[in-house]
Amino acid sequence: MNMNLTLKIWRQKNASDKGKMVDYKVSDISPDMSFLEMLDVLNEQLVNKDESPVAFDHDCREGICGMCSLYINGEAHGPDRGITTCQLHMRMFKDGDTITIEPFRATAFPVIKDLIVDRSSFDRIQHAGGFISVNTSGNTIDANAIPVNKEDADTAFEAATCIGCGACVATCKNSSAMLFVGAKVSQFALLPQGQVEATDRVLNMVKQMDDEGFGNCTNTGACEIECPKGISLENIARMNSEYLKASLKG
Amino acid sequence: MSGILNSSIGRKFAMALSAFFLMFFLLQHFAINILSVFSPDTFNEASHFMGTFWPVQYILQPILIFGVIFHFVMGFILELKNRSARKVSYAKNNGAANSSWMSRNMIWSGLAILAFVGLHFYDFWFPEINTKFIDGDWSGLHNGEFRYFEELQHKFHSHVRTILYVIAFIFLALHLLHGFNSAFQSVGANNKYTKGLNGFGKAYAILIPLGFIFIAVYHHLNHVLS
Amino acid sequence: MALDSKIPKGPIADKWTNYKNHIDLVNPANKRNIDVIVVGTGLAGGSAAATLAELGYNVKAFCFQDSPRRAHSIAAQGGINAAKNYQGDGDSTYRLFYDTVKGGDYRSREANVYRLAEVSANIIDQCVAQGVPFAREYGGLLDNRSFGGVLVSRTFYAAGQTGQQLLLGAYSAMNRQIGRGKIKMYNRHEMLDVVIVDGKARGIITRNLITGEIERHSAHAVVLGTGGYGNVFFLSTNAMGSNVTAAWKAHKRGAYFANPCYTQIHPTCIPVSGDHQSKLTLMSESLRNDGRIWVPKHMKDVEAIKAGTLKPKDLAEDDRDYYLERRYPAFGNLVPRDVASRAAKERCDAGYGVNATGEAVFLDFASAIQRYGKEQAHVKGLDENDAALVKSLGQDVVKNKYGNLFQMYEKIVDQDPYNTPMMIYPAVHYTMGGVWVDYNLMTTVPGLYCIGEANFSDHGANRLGASALMQGLADGYFVLPYTIGDYLSNDIRTGPISTETKEFEAAEKEVREKLDFFVTNEGKHSVDYFHKRLGKIMWNKVGMSRNVKGLTEAISEIKELREQFWKDVKVPGTNEEYNEELAKAGRVADFLELGELFAKDALNREESCGGHFREDSVELDGEQKGEALRDDENFAYVAAWEYKGEPSDAILHKEELEFKDIELKQRSYK
């Protein structure tokens, strides 16, 4: 059964505009549509009426690139679990619903336009230490020369599944980026290759995170629930202990 | 090590350490108070010991006061910083979908406890300090008998005070329900070995405040019924 | 201009080593005076940018996404091939080379493919050193799986998201260089032209997607790693932003475009559900390791399933047609992608499609669940005859292997693939064609390089699974850094390239004029309106199966659509703001030209090879009856097209393909 919906959408012309919520109506929305396809319908309508379409970030539309965001009805990536907005389907809503759509909000994620925010603070945290300093010459040791305990390898992989979408920050009442940073620190902390630079990495990444203006973690656990990839809070705990170890050493 | 308190994780860690200290203190405080229910004499002796033994008075007491102040001040600093990390708030936010009420309202339960600490100091600590340090009376006696149990009972004659205490302990429970495990998470103890702590933390958070409520209500009823 | 592929002399196994020993090098001090532009930050562009910066060049990297980590390489699921032979199952550099050439239906360049196979093992070493968390066995060593079209297990993987993990590896290598200041990163920038000065690529014109600012960037060489053009079909598994614009602008500035008609239609995608659909979702080829593909044998069962009166899992084994196992007993469900896709289309065209649109077949895990469940029950010493237990144990194994894919399917289709077979249908996935490059990965424009999916290079007419990641990283980490040095060694005395020249001015002016046209044109239809119509023409007439009539019609229909687009397209807003409609308009304008050349190339190639299937070129009898028929005598060449204005005026240049180390044979997977 197709649906008619009311959308309350944050409109903001550019970074310096004040912005406001604006109401729109869309009709004949199929439950098989993805949420972004529903917004495509709205935008097609707006373009045909010579109005400015709603700007939102999106790219792969299969839940892996981390480009899409949106705070839908008070939750990052909407009401469903374990998915990004592009994987949210309209069958989660009912005919006649009003849906509130806002950008991810955090001082460290300034709005660029409408629902698009600037997440380059995440990139800068990675520049500060999100790597292993190995030359890309290919002249390294054989890949199987260092066996890695399967459990550690799997845990490192789980941490590495973070897609950097920023839902953790958007959800956190403190706009903390610790789940994101914790995941990256954990991935390397769990692998033998990452040990050499472990001290500097965690100190530098946390410093950059603080400088970007993210809030502090108060362990509400909301990030873990809203994370489309289910990144565990254990990663924050691991970062905390890595950081304390590093501080004592450094 | 330098500057660790300027970092987000350092502050978290400090919050957790002061919390551990306060939770340990709470346990000790409870252990002595519950004696008042079973044996007024033992309660009196224990109180007198704590009130006059010099390491407790001159070392532990200042540390405790510092711990309380530190925990509160740091809590406020963090709250203010965290608020500034989101200058424009959401028009619609469904916090209940992903986190507990307790975890989102630590500042309010904390403030309620702070208010209670004020009352509690007014009730017990200031008179105690007055007796010992202003009047110079370290005997612990009143009319030839230990005064501690009497004073305790006397305080719980009032309905209002008893109700205020009960409410404060409920806030304490709410604070601890999040705070206990949060402290462990902050110091990096969240892994497969620490899963058991979760249940223990919940039990602690409910039983200790419940125990304090029991003590307050017990003494109040003792008075009302007698 | 005659095409010179610059393949080094000597035996195939020594070519690359000899080449590296004899090229000119740039000394470290001089590298500091040389700038290189890299457009695109996927596996190819990202790894190239990182490596070039590490070598000491000043790199400027560009991507249209908000972060280099989001390039569409991230969506690759299954894995990456490498001739490590860790499994001891007979793999070798030669065998990977052979499989790739054969899989590509003998339409790739031998020397390039051999080099690819040769450096493949290094990629794995490199990635592990960078901290890429590949799947491991309990002993702590790397695990492998098997992919379509080969008989060994040489695919390394990280669950169902190998692409993301490899891209994050390249991204981390970039981060290190960005932190050092050796890479200057330009996010949310789109390249809109290449600037040629004195016959050499010396810079690009970009648009800042946030502010609309048009910028000039100069360098001593320009590298394009801008991906494939599958979105010419509108619906594909590509990301929404994937486009041909960078490659097409290069083409217009003199780079030949090779084999545009070679498109890979991936057999296992989630079927189209309606007109609202904006993109298609791939289900990894790795699923064919365990899933069995079938349709009902009898039409009455097809109808019952469509009507909902028969559940697919209730259909008896004997009434199912496992058509891949039937037609290709040797490779079964693991035939190459082009073969699997055509077989699905053949069944659906014959009316056996199992969903409402008639365009879906089943991919069934029931027998894998049974097999794994029994195995687990045996290992754990439990009752192997307890059906419920076996099913639950089996489901756990399958969940472990493909959990994220199953979840993805369930979210989209709203059906539980653990209990009912998945429905799948082929969809456009990868383009083997692209900008023509020589052995050095240089295009026909000196100083302009093209790497990864954007070039035509290594996959011939069909790419094997798990080879795209291999090629992207091989080009970026291990090939381009050598070959570009040979070219740049002539530039050590050039000094900085000025952007204040008439060439830059002219290119910028052209870009501005086009943008101004879009925002002032008083048209009636949105960009998507034209893109969807182009996609329909491409899918129906230049899709999985092609014939002269359809291709001829497509050419004139696309031309007509293009003319209408330039008259009637409507773009709201201005240039001086974030304007996605404007960005899309430029991309679709290029697709509308490419689409015609694509059809023209398909019409020219009167043979069936790999992903290009011509209905007039099939085996007429014998064991291979109905299979694709190649024409090596007349078409063993790369079709490289030179731009001359309209696509219809494009001039064909042929690079004859020589096969010295592999015998040309009819591909048989029977």
UniProtKB/TrEMBL annotation, chain A:
<dbReference type="InterPro" id="IPR009051">
    <property type="entry name" value="Helical_ferredxn"/>
</dbReference>
<protein>
    <submittedName>
        <fullName>Succinate dehydrogenase / fumarate reductase iron-sulfur subunit</fullName>
    </submittedName>
</protein>
<dbReference type="GO" id="GO:0009055">
    <property type="term" value="F:electron transfer activity"/>
</dbReference>
<feature type="domain" description="4Fe-4S ferredoxin-type">
    <location>
        <begin position="153"/>
        <end position="183"/>
    </location>
</feature>
<dbReference type="InterPro" id="IPR025192">
    <property type="entry name" value="Succ_DH/fum_Rdtase_N"/>
</dbReference>
<dbReference type="InterPro" id="IPR036010">
    <property type="entry name" value="2Fe-2S_ferredoxin-like_sf"/>
</dbReference>
<dbReference type="GO" id="GO:0022904">
    <property type="term" value="P:respiratory electron transport chain"/>
</dbReference>
<dbReference type="InterPro" id="IPR017896">
    <property type="entry name" value="4Fe4S_Fe-S-bd"/>
</dbReference>
<dbReference type="GO" id="GO:0051537">
    <property type="term" value="F:2 iron, 2 sulfur cluster binding"/>
</dbReference>
<dbReference type="InterPro" id="IPR006058">
    <property type="entry name" value="2Fe2S_fd_BS"/>
</dbReference>
<dbReference type="Pfam" id="PF13183">
    <property type="entry name" value="Fer4_8"/>
</dbReference>
<dbReference type="GO" id="GO:0009060">
    <property type="term" value="P:aerobic respiration"/>
</dbReference>
<dbReference type="InterPro" id="IPR012675">
    <property type="entry name" value="Beta-grasp_dom_sf"/>
</dbReference>
<dbReference type="InterPro" id="IPR050573">
    <property type="entry name" value="SDH/FRD_Iron-Sulfur"/>
</dbReference>
<dbReference type="Pfam" id="PF13085">
    <property type="entry name" value="Fer2_3"/>
</dbReference>
Automatic annotation (TrEMBL), chain B:
<keyword id="KW-0472">Membrane</keyword>
<dbReference type="InterPro" id="IPR011138">
    <property type="entry name" value="Cytochrome_b-558"/>
</dbReference>
<feature type="transmembrane region" description="Helical">
    <location>
        <begin position="162"/>
        <end position="180"/>
    </location>
</feature>
<feature type="transmembrane region" description="Helical">
    <location>
        <begin position="201"/>
        <end position="221"/>
    </location>
</feature>
<feature type="transmembrane region" description="Helical">
    <location>
        <begin position="58"/>
        <end position="80"/>
    </location>
</feature>
<feature type="transmembrane region" description="Helical">
    <location>
        <begin position="101"/>
        <end position="122"/>
    </location>
</feature>
<keyword id="KW-0812">Transmembrane</keyword>
<dbReference type="GO" id="GO:0016020">
    <property type="term" value="C:membrane"/>
</dbReference>
<keyword id="KW-1133">Transmembrane helix</keyword>
<feature type="transmembrane region" description="Helical">
    <location>
        <begin position="12"/>
        <end position="38"/>
    </location>
</feature>
<protein>
    <submittedName>
        <fullName>Succinate dehydrogenase / fumarate reductase cytochrome b subunit</fullName>
    </submittedName>
</protein>
<dbReference type="InterPro" id="IPR034804">
    <property type="entry name" value="SQR/QFR_C/D"/>
</dbReference>
From TrEMBL, chain C:
<protein>
    <recommendedName>
        <fullName>succinate dehydrogenase</fullName>
        <ecNumber>1.3.5.1</ecNumber>
    </recommendedName>
</protein>
<keyword id="KW-0472">Membrane</keyword>
<dbReference type="Pfam" id="PF00890">
    <property type="entry name" value="FAD_binding_2"/>
</dbReference>
<keyword id="KW-0285">Flavoprotein</keyword>
<feature type="domain" description="Fumarate reductase/succinate dehydrogenase flavoprotein-like C-terminal">
    <location>
        <begin position="531"/>
        <end position="669"/>
    </location>
</feature>
<dbReference type="GO" id="GO:0009061">
    <property type="term" value="P:anaerobic respiration"/>
</dbReference>
<dbReference type="GO" id="GO:0005886">
    <property type="term" value="C:plasma membrane"/>
</dbReference>
<keyword id="KW-0560">Oxidoreductase</keyword>
<keyword id="KW-0813">Transport</keyword>
<dbReference type="InterPro" id="IPR037099">
    <property type="entry name" value="Fum_R/Succ_DH_flav-like_C_sf"/>
</dbReference>
<feature type="domain" description="FAD-dependent oxidoreductase 2 FAD-binding">
    <location>
        <begin position="35"/>
        <end position="469"/>
    </location>
</feature>
<dbReference type="GO" id="GO:0008177">
    <property type="term" value="F:succinate dehydrogenase (quinone) activity"/>
</dbReference>
<keyword id="KW-0249">Electron transport</keyword>
<dbReference type="GO" id="GO:0009055">
    <property type="term" value="F:electron transfer activity"/>
</dbReference>
<dbReference type="InterPro" id="IPR011280">
    <property type="entry name" value="Succ_DH/Fum_Rdt_flav_su"/>
</dbReference>
